[in-house]
């Protein structure tokens, strides 16, 4: 391994442009945030080192043995996050980056491309929430005071952002890519004239400093590996990258899998993740979940995220069964959707794995989701899934051990039905009991506004909620009317204080708890404001039938409070209604299907994916 002559940023980007500087398949994808891009450009402008780079000189005879990707140029967090595959001619050598991809990609995006990220408060599943932004440098002066310690004012902006600041004397925005395009000194002079800053010493000084940092200063230092032994290169990559904090271990392992598959592991995994996440009302499964599912379903003994488990033998086994694995995961995610779950209410992605293993073990297809003959089995599975998500700590520590236990039980006892009883006994032995206890019900009822599990529990309790739309956790009795100042000033008909200090404390304590919470569509919640429940319901649903339907859907008592004095009575009734609903949802199916063999002769053909007509 030797040290190459340092090069300028412009030179490196031109090599990226003509694809002589590329990425090997073992590299992860681009993960840097806009703020990180801005920081690296601030460092470049200040003349700070941006770190060394590790590259691999790939000779023509090695190119055909490996897969390569191009650098990201126009990144879009909505629909363009994956590096493009490139076909390299086998009659020339190339240089592949083993360490430093994030920095080089950031320079490439800032100087040649765009970065589209989601607007604050925008819809995650709508393309218009991700406007295209270009990197700009403010020529009016240095950066305002900031927590990141930035000296220069870089910012990603849309065209509308730039137009909106044209009358602001503190903003003179220069598109950074134009500095890269001005490769000659004469072009730099023309650029200064174009923006009318040639006679402005501050602005022209900033442009010149950036131009020098890109085109003149050889600031990029490369160490180059020249050996063509792929195992050696892989070992170097693992040693260099496994110690980083940004690179997750699953990213690294996916990279290794990509290098060892005959096909394109990265494309296969990303494609499956995208497909799973589009099921039903939408999910947010990660590559981690799919990779872990693969290890479990392929019956790999040790399912931990360890390099030793991603051997060529295991990867060959995973690739050979990929179609079957994909189908099992698709059916399993469909079942979770059928159970009323989605990305907004699924508190632990790992629950997918044993469901998928059960589906895979029995060779079930989408027909299982609808067949009357499998209704009892589905109910047993649904009950177990929901209870495991609501009880604290089930999918936390000891996950790999739990998954191995569940796999063994399903393998030996899940041929004809989901083995709920055996699974729950095994979970209890691991200290992960699903027994419905008063403590569990109280724990659920004590969930509070703003807590991570609160939205998930409400969505699971109320299956009419469509989490594809924007729902808010709403205080049924407005929190503004239970504010300490408001309560302490409130008087009764006799002109006396309506509440004692202890009563005020009780009202404040109860206002954020689950019995006073519901899920409302965002616009409805905004329109509700601080109206009392009784007044809002009467206005929103004029007819008795509509009001009754709303009350029933949300497990609300027949009479809603119109004042703070009526809140405690309402709270107790709603708590009782929710308690009954929670117990019903958490109580396991009393009849564990055991006689599935009676129908197995004609059911097997109906359930296998190959005969599925959906």
Show the helix and strand layout:
Layout: E1 2-3, H1 9-17, E2 21-24, H2 34-46, E3 52-58, H3 60-63, E4 68-69, E5 74-76, E6 94-99, H4 101-112, E7 114-116, E8 134-138, E9 154-157, H5 159-164, E10 173-175, H6 176-181, H7 185-194, H8 201-215, E11 221-225, H9 230-241, H10 249-260, H11 265-277, H12 287-297, H13 312-320, H14 322-338, H15 352-362, H16 375-390, H17 399-413, H18 420-429, H19 438-445, H20 452-461, E12 471-475, H21 484-489, H22 501-511, E13 517-521, H23 522-528, H24 533-540, H25 544-553, H26 567-586, H27 597-607
Parallel strand pairs: 2-6, 3-11, 5-7
Antiparallel strand pairs: 1-11, 2-4, 3-6, 8-9, 8-10, 12-13
Helix pairs in contact: 1-4, 2-4, 12-15, 14-15, 15-17, 17-18, 19-26
């Amino acid at each position: 391994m030797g040290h190459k002559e340092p090069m300028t940023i412009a030179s490196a980007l031109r090599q990226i442009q003509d694809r002589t500087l590329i990425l090997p398949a073992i590299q992860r994808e681009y993960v840097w945030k806009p703020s990180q891009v801005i920081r690296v450009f601030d460092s470049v402008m200040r003349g700070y080192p941006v770190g060394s780079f590790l590259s691999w000189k790939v000779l023509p005879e090695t190119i055909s043995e490996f897969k390569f990707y191009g650098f990201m140029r126009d990144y879009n967090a909505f629909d363009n996050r994956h590096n493009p595959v490139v076909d390299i001619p086998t009659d020339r050598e190339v240089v592949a980056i083993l360490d430093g991809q994030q920095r080089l990609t950031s320079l490439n995006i800032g100087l040649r491309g765009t970065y589209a990220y989601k607007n604050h408060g925008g819809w995650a599943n709508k393309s218009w929430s991700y406007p295209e932004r270009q990197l700009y440098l403010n020529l009016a002066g240095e950066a305002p005071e900031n927590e990141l310690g930035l000296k220069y004012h870089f910012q990603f902006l849309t065209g509308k952002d730039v137009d909106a600041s044209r009358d602001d004397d503190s903003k003179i925005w220069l598109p950074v890519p134009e500095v890269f395009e001005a490769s000659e000194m004469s072009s730099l002079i023309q650029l200064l004239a174009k923006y009318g800053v040639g006679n402005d010493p501050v602005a022209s000084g900033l442009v010149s400093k950036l131009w020098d940092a890109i085109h003149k200063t050889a600031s990029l230092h490369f160490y180059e590996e020249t050996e063509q032994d792929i195992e050696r290169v892989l070992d170097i990559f693992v040693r260099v990258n496994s110690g980083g904090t940004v690179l997750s271990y699953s990213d690294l392992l996916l990279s290794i899998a990509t290098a060892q598959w005959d096909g394109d592991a990265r494309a296969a995994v990303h494609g499956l993740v995208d497909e799973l996440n589009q099921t039903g009302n939408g999910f947010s499964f990660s590559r981690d979940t799919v990779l872990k599912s693969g290890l479990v379903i392929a019956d790999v003994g040790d399912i931990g995220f360890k390099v030793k488990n991603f051997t060529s033998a295991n990867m060959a086994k995973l690739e050979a069964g990929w179609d079957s694995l994909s189908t099992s995961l698709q059916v399993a995610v469909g079942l979770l959707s059928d159970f009323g779950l989605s990305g907004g209410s699924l508190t632990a992605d790992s629950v997918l794995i044993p469901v998928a293993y059960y589906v895979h073990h029995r060779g079930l297809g989408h027909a299982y989701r609808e067949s009357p003959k499998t209704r009892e089995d589905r109910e047993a599975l649904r009950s177990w899934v929901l209870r495991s998500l609501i009880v604290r700590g089930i999918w936390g520590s000891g996950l790999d051990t739990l998954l191995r236990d569940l796999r063994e039980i399903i393998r030996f006892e899940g041929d004809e039905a989901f083995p709920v009883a055996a699974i729950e006994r095994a979970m209890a032995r691991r200290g992960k009991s699903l027994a419905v206890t008063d403590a569990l019900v109280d724990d659920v009822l004590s969930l509070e506004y703003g807590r991570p599990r609160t939205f998930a529990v409400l969505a699971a309790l109320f299956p009419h909620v469509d989490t594809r739309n924007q729902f808010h956790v709403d205080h049924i009795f407005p929190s503004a009317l239970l504010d300490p100042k408001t309560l302490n000033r409130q008087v009764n008909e006799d002109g006396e204080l309506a509440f004692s200090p202890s009563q005020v404390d009780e009202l404040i304590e109860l206002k954020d708890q689950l019995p006073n919470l519901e899920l409302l569509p965002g616009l409805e919640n905004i329109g509700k404001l601080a109206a009392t429940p009784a007044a809002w319901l009467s206005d929103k649903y004029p007819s008795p039938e509509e009001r009754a339907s709303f009350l029933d859907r949300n497990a609300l008592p027949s009479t809603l409070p119109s004042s703070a004095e009526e809140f405690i009575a309402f709270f107790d009734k709603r708590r009782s209604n929710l308690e009954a609903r929670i117990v019903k949802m958490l109580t396991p199916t009393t009849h564990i299907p055991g006689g599935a063999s009676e129908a197995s002769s004609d059911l097997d053909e109906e359930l296998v994916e190959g005969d599925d007509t959906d």
